[in-house]
Each structure stands twice: as C-alpha cells, then as structure tokens.
Amino acid sequence: MTRLPILIAALLALDAPRLRAQASPPLPQHIGHEELRAAVTPADGAAAPPMSAKPVCDRGSYTCIALRRTATGEPELHEAWDDVMFIQAGSGVLLVGGELRGARTSAPGELRGGEIRGGERQRLVAGDMMIVPAGTPHQFEVAPGESVTYLVVKVRRSAPEAPK
Predict the structure, then answer these.
(1) pTM for the model
(2) Which among 11, 14, 36, 47 would be 20 to 30 A from 87, CA to CA?
(3) DSSP class per residue in 8-40
C-alpha cells in the first residue's frame, strides 16, 4: 500500500514540466506601429512590390500578418482559418463569397488562383474591419496607383482534412 503514493508522486514529478507549460499563459507581446509600418514599407527608392507581407506573431491557434498590396491579389480560400482584417491605410475592394473555380492547392487546406464567380464586392478603407470566415473565397482588388495596408489575424477554426 505504501508504494502507491510513491508511484503517484514519481509520475507527477516526471510530468511536472508539461503541467507547468500548460498552466503558463503566453507572455504579452507588444508590436509597435513603427515596426508594423516598417514591415511592409519598401526601402527608400525601391519600387513597391505588388504585395509585401511579414508575419508578426504566431500563437498556434492564431497568427498575425502585416500586409501591403499595390496590386490585385489572387483569389484564395482557407479551409481552416478565419481572416480578420484591420485596414490601416489606403483602400481596396474585397471580392468575397461566391464560388472559387480553377484554384490550385498551395498548401494543405489552402487554395489560390483561378477565379471567383458570384461574389460580392466590399470597399474597405482605413479604420474598417472585415471578417472572412473559413471556407469563403476572397480576393483583394487594388486599383492602379493605389495601395492598401492592413493587419490580418488568422484564427484557426479546425484542423484541415488530410489529403485523400
């Protein structure tokens, strides 16, 4: 009988680092506006690329990416991720919904390219927020000579299905 408490104590001691890791919340992280702006601003004299993107955090169930577009992007669809977009500067039109046709798989659960049929256009300007649920086709359209800078928080809804 005296061995059982010793066995339980030994098992708990072996598992203590994992238990502590689960109990510890992630540390707060501050990302200043200068860092976000610099992440997507071309160097002095450099031509702005059609899109610049920089991951700024990855917490597993969500990631944050700073983006700047100077041209229309590809249609895309994320099977497992909601996109929560916060427009910081400039403007663009988000084509959202409808049906994505002719896309290619760019990563597990990620489709890009092709065309969106039947979607709706939503004009987005600085200060706007747009939520695109997982499984919804979307595409940012940017008029020539214009740009849009935004932060997207990608929130995992479910694990993508394994390829068949």
Answers:
(1) 0.77
(2) 47
(3) HHHHHHHHHHHHHHHHSPPPP----HHHHHHHT
